[in-house]
């Protein structure tokens, strides 16, 4: 019988991974993702999960282990944060290029220097060009659900790509929330054992990751691009199938919250969406037509979905917890490209904030909305300093 329990977000993720029955887990500790693999290690030690838990000397090694294990045809898992994620990026390019369905948990954390262990989105956004599919959770329940969905997406024969599930460090990973944990029978019926058509075995030798000169290399990248674009339908179908089995559905590639008649819409990702929803509800009672569009799947980027959802709004305020130094807002530029050359052009403003765990309040987002309605701003850094908090 499924049960609802109050657990730490990291424990919820570990429970999800256990239910997916991976055979190889490789781990190296880095705050704030460590609790996920600590829980999984205990589950393996206690006999709750039949898997090989491999302690490695770095995140690069962890990624290499799951690459090798996945190539032999078994389900795998690893997780990381911040500098650790950046260390495994080299291997992540290989995992995607080899078309291996590895699932990776990323507990989002700021990237040094200066040293900071708190939450923003710079680590995962830096991995956006590797060929990995990226899912972004709002809370612990969604982080659990997305890990189960991630395996279903990754292992689909039309996809066969790594999937990264992102959850905000501490805000989601270390907060205790009520979470509904499905039964093993439910997950088994939704996610059958992984049965790849091609895998490494001494009985049928094959070559993976062969050398490709200029006559072939470009075509592999073209196929990768086409595959990740075409994965949108698979992802949508997986989310709908999940709803049919488990009864939960938070949206497809995007979540639209009171956007249908909105004049101003905030675009955001991750846990901050909850605060913005509260503000939207308050402003609605005051007669203001505002809404939120939450990006749930960042790669593949939901271009068509964003355009169709927002083509009739007057103002768009894009908020992000990351930046491309020397350019500015990363997500803002991608959203603006959605409307390039289109007949309908809302006013679009870009805001950057919450870096290194900086507090984000409803009043701050109220100011962001008011600013976007008055003028167009670009790369506007917004902040609430601790001394200004009540």
Roughly how many Å apart are the termini? Answer: 44 Å
CATH class of the largest domain: Alpha Beta
Counted by DSSP, the helix tally is 13
Order of helices and strands: EHEHEHEHHEHEHEEHHEEHEEHEHEHE
State the share of residues found in helices, binned by percent.
25-40%
CATH architecture of the largest domain: 3-Layer(aba) Sandwich
Low-confidence stretches: 386-390
**General shape:** globular
The CATH superfamily of the largest domain appears as Thiamin diphosphate (ThDP)-binding fold, Pyr/PP domains
Count of DSSP strands: 15
Rounded mean pLDDT score: 96
β-strand amount? 15-25%
- SSE-based structural type: alpha/beta
- Compute the gyration radius: what is it? 21 Å
CATH domain fold name of the largest domain: Rossmann fold
Name the strands of the widest sheet in spatial order: 3-2-4-5-7-6-12
Main sheet attributes: strand count, strand direction, barrel closure: 7 strands, mixed
Give a topology summary:
Blueprint: E1 3-8, H1 9-19, E2 24-27, H2 34-45, E3 52-55, H3 59-71, E4 76-80, H4 82-87, H5 89-97, E5 103-108, H6 122-126, E6 133-136, H7 140-154, E7 163-168, E8 176-181, H8 184-190, H9 217-246, E9 254-257, E10 264-268, H10 272-285, E11 290-295, E12 297-299, H11 303-310, E13 315-320, H12 330-339, E14 347-352, H13 362-374, E15 380-381
Structural write-up:
The protein has helices at 9-19, 34-45, 59-71, 82-87, 89-97, 122-126, 140-154, 184-190, 217-246, 272-285, 303-310, 330-339, 362-374; strands at 3-8, 24-27, 52-55, 76-80, 103-108, 133-136, 163-168, 176-181, 254-257, 264-268, 290-295, 297-299, 315-320, 347-352, 380-381. It has 390 residues and is α/β, with parallel strands linked by helices. It has a 7-stranded mixed beta sheet, with helices on both faces. Strands 9-11-10-13-14-15 form a 6-stranded mixed beta sheet, sandwiched between helices. A two-stranded antiparallel sheet has the order 1-8. The N and C termini lie far apart (44 Å). 39% of the residues lie in helices and 19% in strands. It is globular, with a radius of gyration of 21 Å.
